[in-house]
Specification:
Elements: H1 2-10, H2 12-30, H3 36-46, E1 52-56, E2 74-77, E3 81-91, E4 97-105, E5 112-119, E6 125-128, E7 142-152, E8 159-160, H4 169-199, H5 213-242, H6 247-273, H7 283-291, H8 301-316
Parallel strand pairs: 1-4
Antiparallel strand pairs: 2-3, 3-7, 4-5, 5-8, 6-7
Helix pairs in contact: 1-2, 1-4, 2-4, 4-5, 4-6, 4-7, 5-6, 6-7, 6-8
């Protein structure tokens, strides 16, 4: 969490790309699915160079996979292995990946579903430069087409749809980690605000605006928002880390609360500084764009609040009397 916040403060695109790779190692530790020899090679190579990984899941027709549905990207067994065909969207770090972990399904009544390991150098991968976004513009989150890409048999270990189980707390903790980078974005915005407040000396005032109570109050509001975001993020992370059973329920609402606080902190700085805050040669304009990208990461706010509401209502429901 602290590493991703620090990376997000420096460059959130780098932070997001890095987090996607780290999360794949976390998930491998939770439920190994890589062939042992291949994974050992990935780890060994990572000691000397970046070996970028990402789970490529979103599709133009499907939307956000966490909202349900089966992947339209299909995998077909052959005599020598598997063939992958489909269209994925929002594939962060697409151009720099070493391996694509492509979410696929077989074409059966009870399909096999899972992530197939596709080496980036495999024939048939086409990256379509569609990423033209409000924020995180350097994240290379393009579309990817897989034109009958051939992979070895051991690169896919899908599970039957009928055997799928909901993700556990490890997956929830991974999602919380991605949120932390946006606290870093807001901290970077705070740094600019504080520096500007000390350097800005209006002629009519004759002293830095940092000496005025109005700016001091705004600085306090920004710090309050970011303190809240960090306390929620690190507190819930600690619960998950120690196996506190309340952690899984709290991580769902932690995401929208952190997002609100980070966005509010940056917007407060922008509102206080006016035109300089929206000027391209000042970094605050970029921080404002980047911090809003937190909303698209799962769980999105409506899903998080719905899940939390259902959980609390179910817990408070009166017991049905035994007839």
């Amino acid at each position: 969490m602290r590493v991703f916040e620090a990376l997000g403060k420096g460059d959130p695109s780098v932070a997001l790309i890095s987090s996607m790779t780290v999360f794949q190692h976390v998930m491998q530790g939770r439920a190994p699915f890589w062939p042992d020899e291949l994974y050992r090679r990935v780890v060994a190579d990572s000691l000397t160079r970046p070996v970028l990984l990402n789970a490529i899941r979103a599709e133009p027709e499907l939307g956000a996979p966490v909202r349900g549905g089966l992947p339209a990207t299909k995998i077909r067994r052959t005599a020598d292995g598997w063939v992958v065909r489909g269209h994925k969207g929002f594939a962060t770090s697409s151009e720099g990946l070493s391996y694509h972990l492509v979410w696929v399904a077989t074409e059966e009544d009870d399909p096999l579903i899972g992530h197939v390991i596709v080496p980036a150098e495999a024939e048939g991968i086409e990256i379509v430069r569609t990423w033209d976004h409000f924020g995180l513009r350097a994240s290379s989150t393009h579309d990817v087409l897989y034109h009958d890409v051939v992979v070895p048999e051991s690169y896919f270990r899908g599970e039957r749809l009928s055997a799928q189980v909901p993700p556990d707390s490890t997956f929830a903790a991974v999602g919380l980690g991605a949120t932390a980078l946006y606290i870093g974005v807001a901290r970077a915005a705070q740094d600019f605000f504080l520096r500007f407040a000390h350097e800005r000396v209006p002629t009519a005032l004759g002293r830095p605006i940092a000496t005025t109570e109005s700016i001091q109050t705004i600085a306090g509001e920004i710090e309050a928002q970011l303190t809240a975001a960090e306390e929620i993020a690190f507190g819930v992370a600690r619960r998950l880390e120690t196996g506190d059973p309340s952690g899984l329920g709290r991580v769902v609402v932690a995401k929208p609360l952190i997002a609100r606080a980070a966005i509010s902190a940056v917007q407060t700085a922008v509102a206080a500084l006016g035109n300089p805050a929206l000027t391209r040669h000042n970094p605050l304009e970029r921080h404002l764009r980047d911090v809003h990208c937190v909303r698209v990461h799962p769980p999105q706010e409506d899903s998080a609040l719905l899940a939390a509401g259902r959980r609390t209502l179910a817990a408070a429901a009166p017991e049905t009397p035994t007839p």
